[in-house]
Amino acid sequence: MKTVLAVCLGIAALAGAVEAQADPILIKFSHVVAEDTPKGKGALLFKQLVEERLGDQVQVEVFHNSSLYGDAEELAALRDNKVQLLAPSLAKFETYTRQLRVFDLPFLFDGLDAVDRFQKRAKGRQLLYSMEQHDILGLAYWHNGMKQLSATRPLRLPEDAAGLNFRIQQSEVLETQFNQVGALTTRLAFSKVFDALASGQVQGAENPWSNVYSQRFHEVQPYITESNHGVLDYMLVTNARFWYSIPHRIRTQLEAIIDEVSYAVNREAARLNALDRQRVAESGHSQIISLSPREREAWRVAMEPVWRHFEADIGPDVLRAARASNLREE
Ligand code: SIN
């Protein structure tokens, strides 16, 4: 009871402070990717619309390519209110919830449309609130795209990956996924991936085309298998205490802008990834390998045990809802 009261008083004090101040509310939005990607463009559109519509009441500063905080620090910085908006990939919330592991399961979603349906339905929306006890509030999902496997040798069948070391995000699911095909993993912040691939510290990675092209991973990965084996999407998150401290009138306008930006990001993501796929193909650096249905099925079967391993963490109801999203009608 005392804790609830203290939190309410804290929020009220913050709200009072924000109302009373003459200065605009400052929202720092930090992310780890390039500007010319679905997330990078979304952050810039958010800034543009907020400044057009909320003028002198709210200011937005955007920091891209880990220039303010990288993967290792950004969520702690959000909880300390040193930054007010982030959009980490869904694999990066391990410390705060295990339910989001559903998004990392290999071959769970048939494509981005299925991911979109899951995110819009009740179970997907509930996950936006799964970290509130840590002061992390989900405001929206943003798409990037389906991940492709890249490596120093051609990967057609699961056994081709055996013995290679893959860079992964901070995710136990992704570690298990690669171990399942006999590969090793190294967890690295996104800002370290190019150097790790270039130096040979790791020999493979998994990323959507927009990240491959914008970070030049294709220049140091001679083979990219178009595996579409998993999704890399984002949750736009804020510090819950900061968010609820914003005067209601301003907050509802910010939420309307976020809806508009999310719609634009999610509509554009597939187009941007297709464009970057083409740019990678035209660069001549990497050979793009298409899998036959039989080869793709071999990867799916090899990675299938990963689902069972994480079902209890995720919750059978969430997993069922995610699988059901492959069907248009529930
Ligand atoms: C991102 O798209 O935000 C980075 C994903 C990664 O770390 O691979």
Automatic annotation (TrEMBL):
The keyword Cell division does not apply. Residues 1-22 form the signal peptide. Keywords: Signal, Transport. It comes from the Bacteria. Coiled coil: none annotated. One of its GO terms (biological process) is C4-dicarboxylate transport. GO terms for cellular component: outer membrane-bounded periplasmic space. InterPro entries: DctP_fam, TRAP_DctP, TRAP_DctP_sf. Belongs to the bacterial solute-binding protein 7 family. This is C4-dicarboxylate ABC transporter.
